[in-house]
Amino acid sequence: MKALLIVTAAAETATGLALAAVPALLIALLLGGALDTPAALIVARMTGAALISLGVACWLARNDTASRAARGLVGALLFYNAAAVALLAYAGAGLRLNGILLWPVVVFHFVMAGWCVRIAMDTKGETQ
After folding, report:
1. Tally of structural domains, the chain
2. What SS3 string covers 21-69?
C-alpha cells in the first residue's frame, strides 16, 4: 500500500500543479481541445487543487498503511481511478477527443485501479 500511496501522491500532485499553472496546455495534451472560457479555466484550476489535495492525503498516509483511514483512502482511489478510466475513455472513443497523452493516461489509471483492487483484496481480512 505504501508504494501505491507514494506513486499516487507524485502523479496526482504533478498533474494538479500542471492544471493549476498551465491548464490550457495540459488539456490540449490530454484531450486535444481548448479551454475557451474563463469558467473552464477556473474549473480546470479547481480540479488541479483537488488533485493536489489527493496527492497530499496520499503522501501523509504513506507511513500509516495499517489504519482504517488508509484503507478508506485506497477505496476512494479505486473509485477515482475507475471514474478517470471511464470518463477519459468516453472522451476518446465517444467524443473523439484525442490528445497525445489521452490513451497513456487511460492505461495509467486502469493500472492504478487494478493496483487498488489488489490492495483492497489483500487488506480485506485485516478489517474484520
Report:
1. 1
2. HCHHHHHHHHHCCCCCCHHHHHHHHHHHHHHHHHHHHHHHHCCCCCCHH
Nearest to 54 by CA among 21, 11, 108: 11
Percent residues over pLDDT 70 in the chain: 96
The x, y and z cell numbers of residue 112, run together, are 492504478
Domain that holds residue 17: 2-127
Band of residue 121 on the pLDDT scale cut at 50, 70, 90: very high
Residue in the block written with cell 491548464:
23
Residue with cell 490528445: 99
C-alpha cell at 46: 479547481
Of 81, 84, 90, 89, nearest to 112 (Cα)? 81
Over residues 41-78, the pLDDT tens digits come to: 999 999 999 999 999 999 999 999 889 999 999 999 99
Residue with cell 477519459: 88
Angle at 19 between CA 91 and CA 46, to 5 degrees: 90
